[in-house]
């Protein structure tokens, strides 16, 4: 699938000013973290778009702090989407799928509820330290690539912001959660 959106180099340059540690490149296009959401939100691809890749090796607090640095863009009306998955363990899900079993393990619902409570109470410290603040943290997100985008969203928040879940429900497949929220 190809999503042909116009880029936004002006905003990309502004990101560089707000977060000097970010490196600009035109080597990548939009990946599966961006275009599947955008094609539903803006099917005509008539909004300027650019994607930020995560620094895979940076600690989680780096991602949260980067979200704080980007808050000025949100205040200007730039839509920032932190697209990932709070529970995403493809290896475990694949093992179950190979056995023909797609039922959740059981720990997903407990961890998903814990995550919701931390988000609702704005306990960002435990969300940032997700690998150690809950017994299922590292199991739920063994790699940072799908989890840390939520930390950008949390870094963008103000105390007055509302958190609205537009999708929540018991996990229906092993080692995944589809919990989704918007901050307004």
Going by CATH, what is the homologous superfamily of the largest domain? LigB-like
The count of domains is 2
Taken as a percent bin, the fraction of beta residues is: under 5%
CATH class of the largest domain: Alpha Beta
> Order of strands in the sheet with the most strands?
1-2
The CATH topology of the largest domain comes to: Protocatechuate 4,5-dioxygenase, Chain B
How would you briefly describe this protein structure?
This protein has 2 domains: 1-53, no CATH class; 58-78 and 87-183, Protocatechuate 4,5-dioxygenase, Chain B.
Would you mind describing this structure in some detail?
Helix content is 41%, strand content 5%. It has 2 domains: 1-53, no CATH class; 58-78 and 87-183, Protocatechuate 4,5-dioxygenase, Chain B, CATH 3.40.830.10. The longest helix has 14 residues, at 107-120. It is mainly alpha-helical. The protein contains 10 helices and 2 strands, in the order ααααααααααββ.
């Amino acid at each position: 699938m190809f999503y042909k959106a116009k880029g936004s180099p002006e905003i990309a340059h502004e990101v560089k000013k707000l977060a000097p540690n970010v490196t600009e490149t035109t080597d990548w296009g939009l990946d599966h973290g961006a275009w599947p959401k955008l094609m539903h939100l803006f099917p005509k691809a008539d909004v300027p778009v650019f994607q930020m890749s995560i620094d895979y090796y940076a600690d989680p607090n780096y991602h949260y702090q980067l979200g704080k640095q980007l808050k000025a863009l949100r205040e200007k009306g730039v839509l920032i989407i932190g697209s990932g998955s709070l529970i995403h363990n493809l290896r475990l899900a694949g093992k179950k799928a190979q056995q023909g079993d797609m039922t959740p393990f059981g720990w997903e619902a407990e961890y998903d509820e814990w995550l919701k409570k931390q988000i609702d109470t704005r306990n960002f410290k435990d969300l940032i330290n997700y690998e150690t603040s809950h017994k299922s943290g590292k199991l739920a997100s063994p790699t940072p690539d799908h989890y840390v985008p939520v930390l950008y969203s949390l870094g963008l928040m103000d105390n007055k912001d509302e958190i609205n879940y537009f999708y929540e429900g018991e996990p229906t497949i092993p080692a995944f959660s589809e919990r989704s929220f918007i901050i307004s």
